[in-house]
Design a protein that fits this description.
heterodimer; A: Cytochrome C Oxidase, Chain A; two-stranded antiparallel sheet; two-stranded antiparallel ribbon; 60% helix; B: mainly alpha; Four Helix Bundle (Hemerythrin (Met), subunit A)
């Protein structure tokens, strides 16, 4: 008894998260609680996703219906819709079209799938799943969100300036981005883009440093690296990739800012603009591409890995089977993480690089297919003969696997330098990365929301709406991106305002219209999710403590965990997170905090030994 | 009750170094990546030719020596704090701070000499890179100086100077890192300029 008391006071002594009333501001706005910060990131991410989606709807209207009268958009877009004086027809401004494409890419890649995804789930799940009271530094965590918020405000503000937001595409290649006089979107809009991204990088680094420090240092007793859920492994590797690659983008941005505002020539050389020679000599625009893609390629995995981790967890839980190849999953994620740093130049096959260097990068790129295939096979083998429960989260996870495979296959085509020369900068590339990176990562994020919603808000999301959301999104996404491959193979380039100027592409008019209709329908379907999300926060069915019968630690907290997550001592961990449908066990799941000694009926021989239950009499002294 | 069954099955404490120290190390990793990007950009750009060649001002030896000395005094301040010697700690911090400022002014002096030799920020990237490397390092050094100033204020406020030894150890680690970073940059410049 006394031992128990000592334990309790010890825990309380360490815990300065005692119950105290907080003001509204410190509880919901400038909060240092990882759960609140996660929700802030999630809701910001949802808002950005709606904005990013709306932008794509506008440029899909242009691409699908080039003769359409867009005068009705004038109340929203104002001067960006040019009214033809003779016919009275409204046309989308050509430069604004480029701004739409640029902002759609920037918002989706960085603000939704980096901040919205990692920011939400790393923040929410890391302390809950490793058994920690909070992040290593709650203050840095709060700063991370508010830097992101400031960055968001600046990026959003760039929509409301007369020259429009940045329009040199999300990869901001110089010289277009380095010369304010090159196009209207390269002026103030580009400056705001760079400032916003610099703040965004600071936010990502603050967050990422915190995730790594928390995972390494604050794991509960027994939570060794080989007992960590795959979600945590994925967030861990994602944060490491971000820590190593985002500073490189910061350097590139710094040099670009110097070129833009201080007259240096890092990326500029021998340029005539408007018939006038610029003084800049000796710069190299290819250097920028190297620096950008050294971040840009790892960024693909920063976006994808968290979703793969979330999917591993959801598929195992809902197939009621241990994940197939737990260590192979960790190994392949590590392999992907390492390889992601040595393949950047496959984005640059057509920059006139040395063909020998090209073949090296091609080889390295194709090697990534190996760990990716291991992951895909492991998902399928986990599902194989599983006792599958089709929750909405599970549907979205399986959808992710589907996109990951069908988008990954075209990655093998594009990784080949010889094929890439034909396909480079066509809609084939757009189709490829929207499936494998965009849609797959997005599905992982949505799956995570459906799965952990009960833990976030103590209520369940509506299942039926979830199914409708899944089927419309899943079918819709294939209807959008599958036909795009054909347009790409035919050679139609990305980022072109109008394809009707070329006879060769006029046969694709119907297909483009079809894609646009599918895109708009898919966008509308997302509003079902938005409704379901906000409705369920207030009116959803009350959740039970462990609604999915899952094994990980977050489900041992109260239904709505307070400050400090566990009211009593932090649970200790005895087993790996995938003891699902263990032969002989009473139930089909055994949580991680259940000692082997309590489950003699299902222990394997070595676990029996761990528990001291080898049948040796001296080990099984009973104490009353 | 079967409590004793648990005897053999004790979950192990997991590795844990101080999270604050760990955060500092990760922060330094991100700074290393900034400079890794800049210096590898330097090499890649240089390999393309059209690159001005100039003598590195010999005054850089002076600034390097000053920064190295400041690293030693920072270490002395930390050791004194561990021995709870308040006077030596404060003196060490003041000297470190002073040497840091002298280093920065020496770097400015180097820039003046570069300008006299017609090497400018604007112009051939061969010159621009030198300014950027020195400038970004100086920016980080200023952050280190602010950190040391905070420590100096804390050393005056603390009842016992040994109370702040952990925080002081973080700031001196950062200072040593900035010193090491500069030595890396200088060696890099000597080899590649």
């Amino acid at each position: 008894m006394s031992t128990a008391n000592v334990d309790l006071t010890d825990e309380m002594g360490h815990d300065d998260h005692g119950h105290h009333e907080q003001s509204f501001v410190s509880k919901y706005i400038f909060s240092t609680d990882h759960k609140t910060i996660a929700k802030q990131f999630l809701i910001s991410g949802i808002i950005w996703a709606i904005i990013g989606g709306l932008l794509s709807v506008v440029f899909r209207l242009q691409l699908g219906f080039p003769n359409m009268d867009m005068a009705w958009l004038r109340p929203f877009l104002g001067e960006w819709i040019n009214i033809d004086a003779a016919t009275g027809m409204g046309k989308l401004d050509t430069e604004f079209y480029l701004a739409l494409v640029t902002m759609h890419g920037t918002i989706m890649v960085f603000f939704v799938l980096t901040a919205g995804l990692s920011g939400t789930f790393s923040n929410f799940l890391i302390p809950l799943q490793i058994g920690a009271r909070d992040m290593a530094s709650g203050f840095m965590n709060m700063l991370s969100y508010w830097f992101f918020f400031l960055s968001s405000v600046i990026m959003f503000a760039s929509f409301f300036i007369s020259t429009g937001p940045a329009s040199g595409s999300w990869v901001i290649y110089p010289p277009l981005s380095a010369l304010p006089q090159s196009m209207s979107g390269a002026g103030l809009g580009m400056t705001l883009w760079l400032v916003a991204m610099a703040l965004f990088i600071v936010s990502t680094l603050l967050g990422g440093i915190n995730y790594i420090a928390t995972i390494i240092n604050l794991r509960t007793d027994g939570m060794s690296f080989t007992k960590m859920p795959l979600t945590i492994w994925a967030f861990f590797l994602t944060a490491i990739i971000g820590l190593l690659s985002f500073p490189v983008l910061l350097s590139a941005a710094l040099l670009l800012i110097l070129d833009r505002s201080f007259g240096t020539s890092f990326f500029l050389s021998e340029i005539y603009i408007g018939g006038e020679a610029l003084p800049n000599m000796g710069g190299s625009p290819i250097l920028f591409q190297h620096l950008f893609w050294f971040l840009g390629h790892p960024e693909v995995y920063i976006v994808l890995l968290p979703s793969l981790g979330i999917t591993s967890e959801i598929i195992a839980t809902n197939a009621r089977k241990p994940i197939f190849g737990y260590r192979a999953m960790i190994g392949s994620m590590m392999g992907i993480a390492i390889l992601s740093f040595v393949v950047w130049a496959h984005h640059m096959f057509v920059t006139g690089m040395n063909p020998f260097a090209g073949s090296i990068f091609m080889l390295l790129t194709l090697i990534i297919a190996v760990p990716s295939a291991i992951k895909a096979f492991n998902y399928i083998t986990t599902l194989w003969k599983g006792n599958i429960i089709f929750t909405p989260a599970m549907m979205f996870s399986i959808g992710l696997v589907s996109f990951f495979i069908s988008g990954g296959v075209t990655g093998i085509f594009l990784g080949n330098a010889a094929l890439d020369i034909q396909l480079h900068d066509t809609y084939f590339v757009t189709a490829h990365f929207h499936l494998v990176m965009g849609s797959a990562a997005f599905f992982g994020m949505i799956a995570g929301v459906y799965h952990w919603f009960p833990k976030m808000f103590g209520r369940m999301m509506d299942r039926k709406l979830g199914y409708i959301h899944f089927w419309t999104s899943f079918i819709g996404i294939y209807l959008i991106f599958f036909p795009m491959h054909y347009i790409g193979i035919a050679g139609f380039p990305r980022r072109y305002y109008s394809f009707t100027n070329f006879d060769a592409f006029s046969t694709f008019t119907d297909l483009n219209a079809f894609i646009s209709i599918a895109a708009i329908a898919t966008f509308v379907a997302q509003l079902i999710f938005v409704f379901n999300f906000f409705y369920s926060i207030f009116k959803g069915r009350r959740a039970t403590q462990n609604p999915w019968n899952s094994t990980t630690l977050e489900w041992t907290t109260p239904i709505e965990p307070g400050h400090g997550n566990w009211p009593g001592p932090i649970p200790k961990v005895y087993r790996w997170p995938y003891d699902l449908s263990k032969p002989g066990a009473k139930e089909d799941f055994i949580p991680q905090n259940v000692p082997f000694a309590e489950t003699p009926e299902s222990n394997l021989p070595h676990e029996q030994e761990l528990a001291g239950l080898e049948g040796k009499e001296d080990n099984t002294i009973k104490v009353d | 009750m079967v409590t004793d069954l648990h005897i053999k099955e004790v979950p192990q404490k997991q590795l844990g170094i101080n999270p604050k120290k760990f955060i500092l190390w990760l922060f330094m990793v991100s700074i290393v990546m900034v400079f890794a990007a800049l210096t590898s950009g330097f090499i890649v750009r240089q390999a393309e030719g059209n690159w001005i060649i100039y003598e590195l001002p010999s005054q850089l030896w002076i600034s390097t020596a000053i920064l190295f000395a400041s690293s030693l005094t920072a270490h002395w301040a930390l050791k004194s704090a561990q021995k709870n010697n308040s006077l030596q700690t404060k003196l060490g911090l003041w000297v470190t701070l002073g040497l840091g400022l002298v280093f920065l002014s020496t770097q400015l002096w180097v820039w003046e000499i570069l300008v006299q030799h017609d090497v400018y920020l604007v112009g051939n990237p061969g010159g621009s890179f030198l300014y950027v490397l020195m400038g970004v390092h100086a920016f980080h050094l200023i952050s280190g100086l602010i950190y040391l100033m905070i420590m100096l204020v804390k050393s005056y406020r603390a009842n016992e100077v040994s109370e702040i030894q952990f925080k002081l150890s973080l700031s001196t680690t950062y200072w040593h890192f900035l010193d090491g970073l500069w030595i890396y940059l200088y060696v890099f410049l000597i080899i590649y300029h």
